[in-house]
Design a protein that fits this description.
The protein is of the alpha+beta class. The chain has one domain. It is built from 2 helices and 5 strands, in the order E-H-E-H-E-E-E. It has a 5-stranded antiparallel beta sheet with strand order 2-1-5-4-3, covered by helices on one side. It is elongated, with a radius of gyration of 13 Å.
Amino acid sequence: MIVRFKNPHPSVGGPVEILPEEISKVLRILDGMTKTTDFALGALAYSAPDEYWLSLDTTFNVIRLLHCDTDYPDEQISVWKLIEFEEVKE
């Protein structure tokens, strides 16, 4: 499916944990780009630290990033809505 990416995370605000800078750079590049969701997931996975997980949400048309910090007593989970997408009609 070909999509157009839009509304990337502003990289400030949100959860307690700061969005990794490597991810922010990829989001700025993807913004406005027309590609497949697999392309975006691959680019984000390449730049994400190993302990982070990506999630493709096709109900709300967003890509999310999840991180479970085991240093916290309750294993705090941070979730970011990284970027939205909309299908491009060919």
